[in-house]
Amino acid sequence: IKNFLSFRDEVVLNFEATKDNTFEDCQVVNVTPKVRLLRFALIYGPNASGKSNLLAAFDFLREFWFDIKSDIDEETGAIPFLLDIDTPNQPSEFNIIFYIGEKKYWYLLVLDSKKVIKEELYVYKSVQPSLVFSRTMEGMQSVAKFNSNLVKASAAITEQLNLKCLPNMSLFAARNQVNCSLAYIDDVRDWMRNNMLPTITPDTNMFEYAGNKMEKEKDLIMNNGAVDEELLRGFFAGSVRMHIADNGFSYSVMKRVQEEMPARGRFWYNVWTAVWMVVCVVSFFASGGLGVMR
Questions:
Q1: What is the number of helices (H) and of strands (E) in the chain?
Q2: What global pTM score does this model have?
Q3: Are 154 and 135 in contact (CB under 8 A)?
Q4: Which single residue of 12, 36, 110, 148 could bond 17 by disulfide (Cβ 3.0 to 4.6 Å)?
C-alpha cells in the first residue's frame, strides 16, 4: 500500500512464515512445497498509528473491485495521504501477491480520486510472472489489453469490456457485465469475492452480519430445501432450536434466537436484569443522585 489515507510511504503486510517451526501445525499452511504462509496476523500499535487504515485499505479494494459506476464523473473513492505537499496530487498504489491453490498471482492497481491509471494482473507459470491483462489510460479512454496466449478474448468481447469499463472503475466490475468466460481472470474474480470479507469492528452488529452472511450463503446450509438444524445449532452454540421456513430466512433465524431461548435461560436472564436494575437504582440514591437532579 502506498499513498493511501495515513500511508504516505510504501507499507508491506507479509504473510510469509519464517523458518521458526513453533506451532507449525496450527499457524502455518504449506501452499506449495517451498511456500509456507501464516494463517493469521496480529497488528498492534498506539492510537493513530494506522491500524484501522490498513483494514480500510482492504475494505476499499473489496468494494472498488465490484463497484459498477453509472457516471464517468463519479470518484473512485481513493484518498491519498493529505498531510504533505506532493502526495495529494499523486496516485495511490496497491500491490497484492496471493495464491489460488498452488498458483501464484500478482495484482497491481494505481489510481487517483478520478480514474484508474494502471490495473494489471500477472500469473506465475514459472519463476517470472506472465501478464494476464494490462489496463491503462489512452487519452481520456480506459483501454484493456489481454495476453492472447493465456486469455481467449475475442475482439468483440474485448470491445465490450472496454466499453463497459469506465475510467473510474475496475476491470473486474466491467467483466461482471459481459457474458463471457475469461481464463485466470474469472478465478481471480471469484477469489476476490469469496476471500476478501468485510471488516469486523467493535461497532459491528454481529447478528446482522451473520444474518446477511447466511442469507447470501443459505444454499450452503440447506439440505433438500430444509434448513440444516444441526449446522445452525453449532452456529449459535446450541442455544436455540431451529425450525425455520425458507421465507424470510435470515430474519427468522435472528428472531428465533430470542424467541426459542430455553425457558430456564430466559428465567435467569430476567433475574440477572432485575438485579442489575435494583443495583442501579440503589446506587443512584446512595450517591445523592436525587439531590443533583433537584
A1: 10, 9
A2: 0.72
A3: no
A4: 36
